[in-house]
Amino acid sequence: MSNFVVGVTGGIGSGKTTVTDAFAARGIPVIDADVIAREMVAAGSDSLNDIARHFGPDILTAQGELDRAQLRQRIFADEAEKEWLNQLLHPRIRHAIETRLNDADAAYCILSAPLLLENKLTYLTNRVLVVDVPESLQIKRTMARDNNSEAQVEAIIAAQMPRQQRLAQADDVLSNDGTVADVYDQVEILHQQYLQAAASKRQQ
Hints:
Structural class: alpha/beta
């Protein structure tokens, strides 16, 4: 079990995956909350069965998978339905995250979570690393990646924690407005710091 956890977060299009891939390349386990959330509603899972019972069978595709577009429509149109879904999934996702953090076997590990701060998951971490880019770059990258309109991306950014508020809660900040090589250079410096911090914590 790792006794030192670094929480990695950032707004949409900030390039969190590039950063966590750089840590993974150094042998650091990455527990990704988004991956866990997707696994939680995989075809045939208990959570998906609960969702289908609540919302009706039209929430599933012909292949028995979650129709994400249909679900998104339903929960954005009704705050109570969104709250029901959060009450169902959040405790299960948290439990899965805690289990994987406990199972991680390395000097330290990464918890990657876009909503790390919003969902108050910082109690699971020793440090918070915010991946930061200017809003204009967030919009440009997300439009290119997801084929969304500028207005759609701006609406997503507006729904997330404001950039300055996120930065105010950071222990460390990685600026991802340059090249991938720049990211790897910054990760190497942070990696050495985290190894030292984890070693110090073990000696306490």
